[in-house]
C-alpha cells in the first residue's frame, strides 16, 4: 500500500516548481496516498499472463513524410503568451537553476 | 595538480554523450521547418509549442537516419521500441516534458574504431543511440554575463524546440591513461566524419548541431570501483573536448589528493581559459518520472527495412581514407599531414572534379592553407569550392594561366569576384599565348639589349634570362615564361 510522506510531497513540489505550505504538505500527502491506493488496486487483478500495457491500440510504425507544413506566424505564436519581448516568450527568471 | 601526478595516482574513466541535430526538412514530431538561424518563433506550431489538443507524429526520415547512424556504429537495431516522456519544468521545453527514448533505444551495443594522431587504433564501445527532440533557446536578460545568475527574466525562442536529435552514448572508456583527452577528441572527430559521410547532419559544432558532454571520473590506480563523475557541458569545438577532459582530470585529482570529495554535478566549460565551473546538481533519473509516451505508437522496424538501410550506408570515412591514400600513393606521414590539415575531403573532391591528385594536394596544402591561416579560418571554410580549384588547375594545364596568374585567379574567387573564368575576364589575367605578339615583344627586347642578344647568339643561353624577364615585364607577367624562353632562343638561332 502506498504511503506518501510529507518529504516526498515536498520533493515533488520542488521538481514541479510549486510553492507548497506546511499545511498543504499534510493535506496533499493524505490525498495523494488515497489516489495512489485506489490506482494500486489495478495491480491486484494483474496476473503474470498480462503484460504491462502502454498503448491501448495494437499499432506500430505510424510515420509522417518529412514535408514542411505551414505552422504559426510569430504573432500567432505569441498571441496567447502572458508576456513577449523581441519576438520571444518572456518568462520570469528561474532561481538557482541552470539547464 | 600536475597532469603527470594525476596519472601516477589515478586512472581516468570517460563517458561521452554526443547530441547530433539531424538535417531533416522538418522537426521530429511536426511539420515545422528544421533550419538554423530563422527569426525567433517563426518555425513553430501547436505541437512543438505544446498547445492543448495537438498530437505528435513521428518523422519517417528521422527514424531512418537514427537507424543508419546505429548501423554505421555497428549497433543492433531494436525490434521494438518506444518513446517516453522525460518530465521536467523548465521554460526551454514548452510541453514541460521532453519526448525522448529512455530504456528502449532504437540502436544499442556497437562500437567505433578511432585512429589517434600517431596511428594507434582505439575501439570505443557504443552503449546506445536514441532519438529525442531538441529544446528551445533561452536568452537571459539583465545579468552581466548573459548567464542566468543575476538575470531579470528570460526570453524564449522555440524554433529549435522539437528538432530531431540523436543522442549517442559511449560505454565506459577505461585504460587510456595519459591519452584520455586525446581519445575524447579523436572520438568526437571520428563520429563527426562518420555523420558527415552519412549525410544525416550538418555536424557544425559552432552552430550547435553537434554537441558533446564529457563525463569524467578518476579511479585510484589498482581499484575496481569508479569514482564519482562530473558531466561537463557546453563543449563546442574538438579542441575544447580535449581541454575539458584534461582540465577535469587535473581538477578532480587535486580535490581527491587533498582529501576532498567529487560532487556529482553538471559543469560548464569556459572557452576563454579552458576551465570548468560548477553548474546544477544533477537530478536523478527517478526525478524525471519517465513513462511511455501514450501519443506515439511503438516503432517496430522490420528486418527487411533494417537490411535495406544497411545497403544505403556509404563508404565509411576510414575505408575511404585507406583507399584514397593508396590511390594517391602517399606515405603514412604524407597522408597524416593531409588529414591534420583537414584537406583530405577537399583534395578528393578536387580530384573528382577532374584535377590530378598531385596538383590538387599542392593547392590545398600550400597556397590555400596559407590563405586559411591568414584569415584564421578552417581550410573547409574558405569561400572556394573544390570544383573551382579544379577549374583553375585545368586552366594552368591548358596553358591559359601561369602559376602566378592562377594564384591571382584564386585570390579573386576568394574575394567573391565569381567563378575562375569570370575572374580571368574581369582581371584580364589570361596568358598572352599569341606567338605573334610574344615574338614582337621578344624582338623588341633583343633590339633594346644588343650586347645580350650577341651573347645568346654566341651560345651563352644562360643570358636569355634577362630578355625573358623584360618580356614578362612588358606583358605584365601574363606570358608563359617557358614559351618566351623558347622564342628568345629561336629568334637568336635563326
Ligand atoms: Zn511544430
Automatic annotation (TrEMBL), chain A:
Keyword match Ligase: yes
Keyword Cell division, does the record have it?
no
Catalytic reactions of this protein: L-aspartyl-tRNA(Asn) + L-glutamine + ATP + H2O = L-asparaginyl-tRNA(Asn) + L-glutamate + ADP + phosphate + 2 H(+); L-glutamyl-tRNA(Gln) + L-glutamine + ATP + H2O = L-glutaminyl-tRNA(Gln) + L-glutamate + ADP + phosphate + H(+)
Alphabetic keyword roster: ATP-binding, Ligase, Nucleotide-binding, Protein biosynthesis, Transferase
* Pfam families per the UniProt record, alphabetical: GatC
Listed under GO biological process in this entry are:
glutaminyl-tRNAGln biosynthesis via transamidation; regulation of translational fidelity; translation
- The EC class name is ligase
Q: What is its EC number?
A: 6.3.5.-
A single Gene Ontology MF term assigned here is:
ATP binding
Q: What SUPFAM superfamilies does this protein map onto?
A: Glu-tRNAGln amidotransferase C subunit
UniProt-listed InterPro entries:
Asp/Glu-ADT_sf_sub_c (IPR036113), GatC (IPR003837)
**Quaternary structure note:** Heterotrimer of A, B and C subunits.
What the record says about family reads:
Belongs to the GatC family.
Q: What does this protein do?
A: Allows the formation of correctly charged Asn-tRNA(Asn) or Gln-tRNA(Gln) through the transamidation of misacylated Asp-tRNA(Asn) or Glu-tRNA(Gln) in organisms which lack either or both of asparaginyl-tRNA or glutaminyl-tRNA synthetases. The reaction takes place in the presence of glutamine and ATP through an activated phospho-Asp-tRNA(Asn) or phospho-Glu-tRNA(Gln).
Protein's name according to its UniProt entry: Aspartyl/glutamyl-tRNA(Asn/Gln) amidotransferase subunit C
UniProtKB/TrEMBL annotation, chain B:
SUPFAM superfamilies found in the cross-reference section: GatB/YqeY motif, Glutamine synthetase/guanido kinase
Q: Does the keyword Transferase apply?
A: yes
Q: Kindly list the GO molecular function terms attached to this UniProt entry.
A: asparaginyl-tRNA synthase (glutamine-hydrolyzing) activity; ATP binding; glutaminyl-tRNA synthase (glutamine-hydrolyzing) activity; transferase activity
Tell me which UniProt keywords the record has, alphabetically: ATP-binding, Ligase, Nucleotide-binding, Protein biosynthesis, Transferase
Q: Which reaction does it catalyse?
A: L-aspartyl-tRNA(Asn) + L-glutamine + ATP + H2O = L-asparaginyl-tRNA(Asn) + L-glutamate + ADP + phosphate + 2 H(+); L-glutamyl-tRNA(Gln) + L-glutamine + ATP + H2O = L-glutaminyl-tRNA(Gln) + L-glutamate + ADP + phosphate + H(+)
Q: What is the E.C. number?
A: 6.3.5.-
Q: Which Pfam family, an example, fits this chain?
A: GatB_Yqey
> Which range is the signal sequence, renumbered to this chain?
none
Please name the GO terms of the biological process aspect recorded for this protein, alphabetically. Answer: glutaminyl-tRNAGln biosynthesis via transamidation; translation
Please give the SMART domains that the UniProt record associates with this protein. GatB_Yqey (SM00845)
What range(s) does the Asn/Gln amidotransferase domain occupy?
Answer: 345-492
Iron among keywords: no
Q: Where is this region: Disordered?
A: 266-287
**Subunit and interaction comment:** Heterotrimer of A, B and C subunits.
What is the recorded function of this protein according to its Swiss-Prot or TrEMBL entry? Allows the formation of correctly charged Asn-tRNA(Asn) or Gln-tRNA(Gln) through the transamidation of misacylated Asp-tRNA(Asn) or Glu-tRNA(Gln) in organisms which lack either or both of asparaginyl-tRNA or glutaminyl-tRNA synthetases. The reaction takes place in the presence of glutamine and ATP through an activated phospho-Asp-tRNA(Asn) or phospho-Glu-tRNA(Gln).
Protein family (similarity comment): Belongs to the GatB/GatE family. GatB subfamily.
Q: Write the protein's name.
A: Aspartyl/glutamyl-tRNA(Asn/Gln) amidotransferase subunit B
Source organism (scientific name): Herbihabitans rhizosphaerae
Gene giving rise to this polypeptide:
gatB
